[in-house]
């Protein structure tokens, strides 16, 4: 047959065969559907019971966890010491270097409770996390891990420069670094204060 020849009309025998095949397919599909529906019908009560049992068991496990999360959220909200509200004019942005240390952490607490916005800069050399962790997440508080020997670019109204390895063991740990922190670090802070 030429490639562009019209397809021959289907003979009555072929048509009949096609109709039989179609009828058989429809019948098979209907049987399958019936079977599936029947099985689903049989399974539903078992499945529903199963789901109910699982759900009630999950609830028993999840409920205490939900309770714990609620408690944690409450303690998280309540954990800050009360801070004064200051008007925009009175509220200062204050930088405390070495604010994780002994002196700096007391100063930071006072400034925070007075209602100022406090940025602590510390290289975590000697400072203790527990000195400031009670302010983490507070909207007026910011902690920056920074070495005083590097330039710092920040806009503040006041600076308290307390970053220095002050206690004798840390002072002597690396004397050159100590000298540089006390000189170059202080110069950097003076540059920021200009
Ligand atoms: O280069 C540095 C060196 C130090 N620091 C930080 O500066 C802070 C210094 O705090 P320290 O507690 O060591 O020193 P402080 O001056 O606050 O208190 C110190 O002097 C008074 C004594 O009574 C205290 O016992 C002693 O710790 C630390 O948080 C340290 O990590 C820097 O950020 N950069």
TrEMBL record:
Q: Which reaction does it catalyse?
A: UDP-alpha-D-glucuronate + H(+) = UDP-alpha-D-xylose + CO2
Q: Where is the NAD(P)-binding domain?
A: 95-193
A Gene Ontology cellular component where this protein is annotated is: Golgi cisterna membrane
InterPro entries noted in UniProt: NAD(P)-bd_dom, NAD(P)-bd_dom_sf, UXS-like, UXS1_N
**EC class of this enzyme?**
lyase
The GO molecular function terms of this record are:
NAD+ binding; UDP-glucuronate decarboxylase activity
Per the database record, which ranges form the UDP-glucuronate decarboxylase N-terminal domain?
A: 38-80
Topological category with respect to the lipid bilayer: Single-pass type II membrane protein
GO terms of biological process kind: D-xylose metabolic process; UDP-D-xylose biosynthetic process
Q: Where in the cell is it found?
A: Golgi apparatus, Golgi stack membrane
Protein's name in the database: UDP-glucuronic acid decarboxylase 1
Q: Tell me the organism.
A: Bos mutus (wild yak)
